[in-house]
């Protein structure tokens, strides 16, 4: 079974030589998504709005590949300021509802384009 590259017109264009996601052996690996609006490339103001936009970008890629947020088994969150963790967590919890994938959250010195947050996910199709 070959790997399938996934690109979505509803997520911002990659800012490097990578796919939005790669599906391999029934697992979808979504590249880290910064909070760029796919139409304008601009970031919204504030960490909550940036988190919401990053998750919207992840969601667009999941949908393009035929997955949903409920297929996500692991998420990685990279934050510029861990003091904003509670606000990020609030938006994250709203997005995932009662679904609770495994997760790692780390503070980093800098993110692409000086974003406040970047989110990546791994998804596996739920058994029907």
From TrEMBL:
SUPFAM superfamilies: YjgF-like
Top-rank taxon: Bacteria
InterPro entries in the record: RidA (IPR006056), RidA_CS (IPR019897), RutC-like_sf (IPR035959), YjgF/YER057c/UK114 (IPR006175)
CC annotations in GO: cytosol
Pfam families reported in the protein's UniProt record: Ribonuc_L-PSP
A GO MF label: deaminase activity
NCBIfam families the record matches: Rid family detoxifying hydrolase
Family membership: Belongs to the RutC family.
Protein name: RidA family protein
